[in-house]
Write a structure and sequence with these properties.
Length: about 240
């Protein structure tokens, strides 16, 4: 049986402070665990569940059966999804691809998780994020990513320093930018998405070489940052002749 100390430890991983100290985070549900087995099997440490998962676990991973009460104690979800797993923090890459995303102070966990999921869908392998952006190992981010946390590299750094050293185009999503549907773009450079309420920080605007926007055709006030990211990524993925 799982011990009280184990329960206490897993619950501590709900908080960033203890995740960072232990370099571990949790994932929940059979789909998330299946994604971890597929894309980052070495990150899996231990799985707890009311029933075993269908996929074969890596040899080093121990499965421990628990009851529904214990599952509720260690889960972050209102309706727990059968299994909870402990994973180690994922290794950061030392190089980035030709086209990647920069996130400036994204604060909503659901937005970051959705952007990770979009990046995975559109084949964007790398994201850089300001240090004020929500923690990618926040359980709500991890859950919203639907497993994309395991195949999209995210790095937290000083965006100013990153922009100062790049020679690539820096595309910034701002209201006064050029119509994305009319602009000649290429899938090379950095797509910068700003904070949900304030947009891109003033001190970063001078580094934007190509301001772009999504024109409004109707009466909506604004677009959610994750929605806007999906439209931009779709356009950057469109073949341009």
């Amino acid at each position: 049986m799982i011990s009280k100390e184990q329960i206490k430890y897993i619950r501590s991983l709900h908080r960033k402070k203890f995740r960072d100290v232990n370099q571990q985070f949790i994932i929940e549900g059979p789909k998330m665990i299946a994604e971890a087995i597929l894309y980052a099997p070495g990150s899996l440490i231990q799985v707890f569940g009311t029933e075993a998962i269908q996929e074969k676990l890596p040899e080093h991973v121990v499965f421990e059966e628990i009851d529904n009460k214990t599952l509720g104690q260690i889960s972050t979800l209102k309706h727990p999804q059968k299994q909870v797993a402990i994973c180690s923090y994922l290794p950061s890459k030392t190089t980035r691809s030709e086209f990647y995303i920069a996130l400036d102070t994204i604060q909503d966990p659901g937005n970051l998780g959705t952007i990770l999921r979009l990046a995975s869908w559109f084949g964007v392998h790398d994201i850089i994020a300001s240090k004020e952006t929500v923690d990618c190992y926040n359980p709500k981010v991890v859950q919203a990513s639907m497993g994309a946390i395991f195949n999209v590299n995210i790095e937290y750094l000083d965006l100013k320093e990153a922009f100062e050293t790049t020679e690539s185009p820096v595309y910034g999503a701002i209201l006064e930018g050029e119509n994305i549907y009319q602009k000649d773009i290429q899938r090379k450079g950095i797509l910068v998405m700003g904070n949900e309420g304030n947009g891109i920080s003033d001190d970063l605007l001078s580094y934007i070489t190509d301001p772009i926007t999504i024109p409004k055709f109707g009466k909506g006030e604004s677009l959610n940052v994750a929605m806007a990211t999906s439209i931009f990524l779709s356009e950057f993925s469109r073949p341009r002749l």
